[in-house]
Amino acid sequence: MVNAALRCYDLPRNLAVDLINLSENATYKVEDQSSGQRWALRVHRPGYHSRASISSEIAWLVDLRKQCVVITPVPVMGSDGEFIQVVSPASRREPHHVVLYEWETGAEPDVRKDLRRSFETLGRVTAKMHRHSKSWKRPLGFERLTWNFETALGATPHWGRWQEGMGVDAPRRALFGKTVELIRRRLNNYGQGPDRFGLIHCDLRLANLLVDVDQVKVIDFDDCGFSWFMYDAATPVSFYEHLPEVPDLVQHWLKGYKTVTAISQADEEEIPTFIMLRRLLLVAWIGSHHYTDLAKSMGTDYTSGTVGLCEAYIERFG
User: Fold this and answer.
1) What pLDDT, in 10s, does the model give residues 174-228?
2) Cβ-contact 4, 14 below 8 angstroms
3) Burial 150-178 (b: 16+ CB within 10 A, else e)
4) Residues spanned by CATH 3.90.1200.10 within the chain?
5) Helices 51-66 and 116-135, axial angle in degrees (round to 10)
6) CATH class of the domain at 116-317
7) Which residues belong to CATH 3.30.200.20 in the chain?
């Protein structure tokens, strides 16, 4: 499938291809062994995003870079002049959409190091992205998923049911359910007005950031869609929500955000709710994506670590 996809582009022949990530999609590093030039090839899994949705993702990340809001990946046109290519191998029932991007330099922030400066920079970058989102005239036919309560933890979840997470036994199901109900009530009160809900990245976790000297680059817009702006304050601590330094990192994120635009007290006070929502959403994701290396590395320990967070959240807001 990858070989068929690469033939859609005007690329050198002497290419080395390595799978670097398997999550919602498969991402490959493609390298010209003669020149050392590299690209990232994303093979989309069927049934998750439509062609219109992928095209909408590309439209936003291209304009973000064009307007100097943030450094984002640069998509590569195929030989037919299109960014999105379709590959239909004989051994597969469904065609796959593929997109090739120029390779971006940099490294994922290391959670074992002092991340306060990086979070302050990320806060500034996120605020600029939100400001762009609020004023950007989206192209006709723009289509992205909506990440609200129902599609995260409710009746129609995009990433599976939290009740089916790894290690969610009866006592945890009861505790998590109580937490989910509290989240629902708070978000209903918080609302989805245009100043609080719009087009955002939705997955600004450390793995989707590249630090290159003093720059923070944002990659992987695969989950970008419509959600609460403050949800982008929660995703950078994904999988590390339980660490004691998280409240301080959030304060540094806010410090950076406020250098670009003001933030209301209500927005700031609801960030713990979005962190809790994200944590339970990832419990669901791990359960429905148990075959991935990331899910395997987290497993039931992640669910166990969620218990204390739920208890603290209920004690604080219940």
Assistant:
1) 999 999 999 999 999 999 999 999 999 999 988 899 988 878 899 999 999 999 9
2) no
3) ebbbeeebbbbebbebbbbeeebeebbee
4) 116-317
5) 110
6) alpha beta
7) 2-102
Cα-trace Rg, the chain: 20
Superfamily of domain 2-102: Phosphorylase Kinase; domain 1 (3.30.200.20)
> Per-residue DSSP letters for 73-139?
--EE--TTS-S-EEE--TT-SS-EEEEEEE----BPPPTTS--HHHHHHHHHHHHHHHHHHHH--PP
> 63 near 133, Cβ under 8 Å?
no
3-state secondary structure of 199: strand
Tokens representing 155?
């009746």
Quote the pTM value: 0.94
pLDDT tens track for 138-171: 999 999 999 999 999 999 999 999 999 999 999 9
